[in-house]
Specification:
There is one protein chain. The protein contains 17 helices and twelve strands. The protein is of the alpha/beta class. It has two domains: 90-351, 3-Layer(aba) Sandwich (Aspartate Aminotransferase, domain 2); 355-473, Alpha-Beta Complex (Aspartate Aminotransferase, domain 1). The strands form three sheets. Strands 1-7-6-5-4-2-3 form a seven-stranded mixed beta sheet, with helices on both faces. It is globular.
């Protein structure tokens, strides 16, 4: 019997979780009242033969079992690089759920929501102080929307100055995919800057791609390799001399919070992911929130409205005259503002730097312990995340990054970010955040070393992973190209 077969048999009970519930004709709930609305032909299923008949209890159990197969930050370490999957403190949830906040409605008179407006004002001011920037809008609903608002402000800046010739945005080759997408969506042409052998963008590279058509540069600091862009101030000064602006992607702010003012680096606009740096929940546990902070150059164009404090100490919503507009209904994802403000105040001004210090320490500890097991594409010093490659595993046994990621699932870990950044072939991008203890880091390191050993000694175990999950390896390409989105007897 092969090693792979032994593993699969040992964990057969886990697979049983997804066995189909056998439907029985007539097993339905009788107590629900009949629908008294007319049927809409467009929404009526044409073929309904052999449709599963299940009781409410069976449906509940089915979805509960499915939920137990999910992985979350509450269940285990989530080393997803460039995503900052940190702990979401429960006290934040308690405060956000208080009726004095949750019962508010955006149509209520300002005089009746002064507490909520004050929360927004305090968060605006806190984000300005943390970054050193001169203005802030909480309006964008997510990081990508904040990014869009930021680039639209750059466009508005040039429109006001009649710089109709400035039609190009520069983007590094290591950038998040949203950067070129946002620039293109905003009407710009994208021109790529190439990272050097140390993984950074140099002033000389910028000069080689610069001309009078360049409206600005979008850059991530530290970049997606976890490397600080050490020429950032010289790059900013050069751009400003050409009347071009600098956009900083705030995806990796967790590496710098409390350490440096973004404003002093010459940045004109940056979006901040509250669901990364400031601990508000990600994804389905969200929603996200992507406030933007700006320098003096872009103050007149901030998304509207702003919360301002009047001379009598009360708060009001104020509209911006030359604003780039609104990007969603009402005033932003308010529940996230409460959570983020709680997180910032919990640390306070004096201890905020502990976030980035611990995040950088944790990432570099992992890097130091795994550098003999996995290839490092760059020898440069890194901050909050470590990027490895599958080069050694590919060379010895044809084990790929994809296989390593799948095998980690057998040990209760969400896979790291894979095949990104695109400048690194076979990238494994690990970001532990400041939330993880040394005990947990050591366990993760031990598992990573074991997978590296398996890749060398028993590669088939890694190539056929995962073995301990309810669903085994899928044909992800086929699933993406031919999705089955409605119930069909042949797929049940």
């Amino acid at each position: 019997m092969s090693v792979v077969t032994e593993i699969q048999r040992a964990f057969h009970p886990v697979t049983d979780l997804l066995e189909k519930t056998h439907a029985v004709k007539g097993r339905v709930n009788e107590y629900l009242p009949a629908v008294n609305l007319p049927e809409a032909p467009a929404w009526t299923r044409k073929q309904i033969s052999n449709f599963p008949q299940l009781s409410e209890f069976e449906v509940l159990r089915h979805f509960t079992k499915l939920s137990q197969l999910n992985h979350s930050i509450d269940g285990g370490m989530y080393p997803l690089g460039s995503c900052t999957m940190k702990y979401n403190p429960r006290i934040n949830e308690e405060v956000a759920g208080m009726q004095r906040f949750s019962y508010m409605h955006p149509y209520m008179p300002e005089v009746d929501v002064q507490g909520s407006l004050e929360v927004m004002y305090l968060l605006q001011e806190a984000l300005k102080e943390i970054t050193g920037m001169k203005g802030c809008s909480l309006h964008p609903a997510a990081g990508a929307q904040g990014e869009l608002a930021g680039v639209k402000m750059i466009r508005k800046y040039h429109q006001i100055k009649n710089n109709t010739h400035k039609t190009v945005i520069l983007v590094p080759d290591s950038a998040h995919g949203t950067n070129p997408a946002t620039a293109a969506l905003s009407g710009f042409t994208v021109r790529t800057l190439t990272s050097n052998e140390h993984g950074i963008i140099t002033l000389n590279e910028l000069k080689s791609k610069m001309d009078e058509t360049v409206a600005g540069l979008m850059i991530t600091v530290p970049n997606t390799l976890g490397i600080f862009e050490k020429e950032i101030k010289e790059i900013a000064d050069f751009l400003h001399a050409q009347d071009a602006l600098l956009y900083c992607d705030g995806a990796n702010l967790n590496a710098m919070v409390g350490q440096v003012h973004i404003y002093n680096m010459g940045v004109d606009v940056m979006h901040i992911n509250l669901h990364k740096t400031f601990s508000t929940p990600h994804g389905g546990g969200g929603p996200g929130s992507g406030p933007v902070v700006v320098s003096e150059r872009l103050l007149p164009f901030l998304p509207t409205p702003q919360v301002v404090q009047k001379s009598d100490g009360t708060f009001e919503l104020q509209h911006v005259e030359q604003t780039v507009g609104k990007y969603r209904g009402f005033y932003g994802n308010f529940g996230m503002f409460i959570r983020a403000l709680c997180y910032i105040y919990a640390f306070g001004k004096e201890k905020l730097s502990q976030i980035s210090q611990t995040a950088v320490l944790n990432a570099n500890y992992i890097k130091s312990q795994l550098r003999d097991s996995y290839d490092l594409p760059f020898e440069s010093k890194t901050l909050h995340e470590a990027v490895f490659t599958d080069r050694w595993q590919q060379k010895t046994s044809k084990v790929k990054t994809h296989d390593i990621a799948k095998r980690l699932m057998d040990f209760g870990y969400h896979p790291p970010t894979v095949y990104f950044p695109l400048v690194v072939e076979g990238a494994l991008m690990i970001e532990p955040t400041e939330s993880e203890s040394k005990t947990e880091l050591d366990r993760f390191i031990q598992v990573m070393k074991q997978v590296a050993h398996e890749a060398k000694e028993t590669p088939e175990v890694v190539k056929t992973a995962p073995h301990r999950t309810g669903i085994k390896r899928l044909n992800e390409t086929q699933a993406a190209r031919n999705p089955v989105l409605t119930w069909n007897q042949n797929h049940s």
